[in-house]
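Structure (tokenized):
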């Protein structure tokens, strides 16, 4: 089964890359046009906007997911009361689909009955919070939903890493009078390198595939201000009836994934082989 799965994956990947150099429209056809699809792709404003959005979302998501996830994990590692309850509550959003999460946060961020309406109802009539209808900050409205859903998983991964740290290290640090923050920064975090790398790959692969949240919350709007590459691929392949352009965009997404996965594989397996 593993051989079949690998063969299907490699076959589909090669087929997609090959046909990205063709002029395929509604159906695939072997009419090669060289790099025309890629030149058109990178000269299209919608694609440029989608890349910019993905970069903003990706950088913010990586940084905030690590900071929030590790902070929550460090708090949970203090053996607090009702730890299992808090852990379940924080992890619960990850069990929801991105469509459900997107719809929930679309309601929460709706100015008519969401956060803005509630705050104004408390007396702050001038309060404004409507990110999904503001082209300049709409990607941050999507980011809020993504963090809400994904931070719980990061917390669990970090907590597993913290629980794997030998307690003797903590005891030795306390005996030596090392502050807790220095213990985390200079001892614990370096020891959790494999956990950080694995978490990075998981988050990065999810960022590249960002689609459901955007469709559920904004459908790419206002205008094209919240477009992302995955939506660009879907629209051109299934709505625009331009398979060649969709294949070219998906190939660029594949390249982005390879940029993430190859260094991870080298760090994980190359170092072990050298050891």
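Design, position by position:
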């Amino acid at each position: 089964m593993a051989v079949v799965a690998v063969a299907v994956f490699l076959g589909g990947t090669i087929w997609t890359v090959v046909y990205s150099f063709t002029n395929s429209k509604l159906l695939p056809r072997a009419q090669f046009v060289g790099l025309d699809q890629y030149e058109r792709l990178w000269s299209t404003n919608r694609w440029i906007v989608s890349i910019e959005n993905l970069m903003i979302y990706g950088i913010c998501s990586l940084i905030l997911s690590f900071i929030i996830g590790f902070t929550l994990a460090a708090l949970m590692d203090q053996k607090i009361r009702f730890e299992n309850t808090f852990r379940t509550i924080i992890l619960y959003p990850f069990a929801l689909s991105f469509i459900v999460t997107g719809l929930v946060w679309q309601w929460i961020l709706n100015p008519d009955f969401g956060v803005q309406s509630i705050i104004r109802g408390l007396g702050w009539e001038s309060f404004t919070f409507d990110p999904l209808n503001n082209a300049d900050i709409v990607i941050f409205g999507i980011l809020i939903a993504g963090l809400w859903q994904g931070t719980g998983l990061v917390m669990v991964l970090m907590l597993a890493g913290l629980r794997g740290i030998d307690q003797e290290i903590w005891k030795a640090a306390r005996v030596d009078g090392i502050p807790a923050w220095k213990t985390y920064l200079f001892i614990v975090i370096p020891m959790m390198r494999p956990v950080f790398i694995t978490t990075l790959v998981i988050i990065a692969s999810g960022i590249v595939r960002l689609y459901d949240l955007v469709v559920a919350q904004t459908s790419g709007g206002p205008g094209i201000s919240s477009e992302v590459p995955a939506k660009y691929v879907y629209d051109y392949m299934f709505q625009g009836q331009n398979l060649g352009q969709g294949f070219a965009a998906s190939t660029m997404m594949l390249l982005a994934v390879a940029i993430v996965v190859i260094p991870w594989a080298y760090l994980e397996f190359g170092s072990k082989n050298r050891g």
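Reviewer-requested clarification: The chain has a mean pLDDT of 89. Residues 45-76 form the longest helix (32 residues).
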